[in-house]
Request: fold
Amino acid sequence: MPAITRRTRVIEGAHASSLPVADLIADGRPAILRGIARDVPLVAAGLEGAESAIAWLKQFDGGRPVTAYVGDPAIGGRFGYAEDCTALNFARERGSLSGYLDQLLAGLGDPNAPAIYIGSTDIDQYMPGLRAQAALPFGDPQLVENPPLVSIWIGNRTTASAHYDMSNNIAVTLVGHRRFTLFPPDQVANLYPGPLDPTPAGQVVSMVDFDAPDLARHHGFAEALAAAEVAEMEPGDALIYPALWWHQVEALDPFNAMINYWWNTSPGFIDTPQTTLLHALLSLRDRPEHEKKGWKALFDYYVFGDPTRAGAHLPEHARGNLAPIDETKARRLRAQLLNRLNR
Reply:
């Protein structure tokens, strides 16, 4: 990868119970929380060796099949699209957690072992008891009021190509080392996203091979690199970053495990903006430029500006959907949309 000089800021001495999560997210940039999870027992097991970490994790196998992504050694651990972009370069499988852990154990030290990672697996559903032993006791009201989805990621040397998530994230490295390469959301064009369908795991990923970028084909990537930063993670470190930041994640050791915390502060009845994006492709993208310019002004007024502005000059009883959305209004709006989409 071309050199990136900017390093993610580091916060030393952080404790989960007193971590100002809301302030860090509002700050709008990533931060490494050095050593915040050093006392988690899995960290100690991992420092003893991959074998100890695998044995420790197997005790929490809840017996439910998990999803694993398995790639041929030829992909070099980089999960993404096949050459023609109509398929993926790996297989998605279902099997027992212990079985995949045994495969990872058997492949230690084998350069021809397949690339394997078990991604975004809900620990409460699939690894009962793990939360009590490995989750961090975050005390910030933002996380207390918006309980995060807590998931585990397990695998060998793999790379999750650059992508964005629609949730805020705290990623905790527990076994092995990881490298996050992060880009602010405004670099989307310079990261050359792949197809919206299929995607490796639900989110579109960058088409750029960071290890050997083709700058003749992806010339804007040089600009993305100028805006990028790198977070080098050790066992016990965590990385906090806001939603929609692009990030490539490299698991650097023969065996790696990470737990992450995803959350949003929007109420549960608020729909995902990804649906809005897809509908905009259907309804707006291919209209004449002068119409799109007009619609952009309307979106700025109704959506991206001050949320109170569009209804401020109207009597309160007449504001309708311009008033703050509650669960009842959300259901009504959703019904209107479904009726129009089903025309």
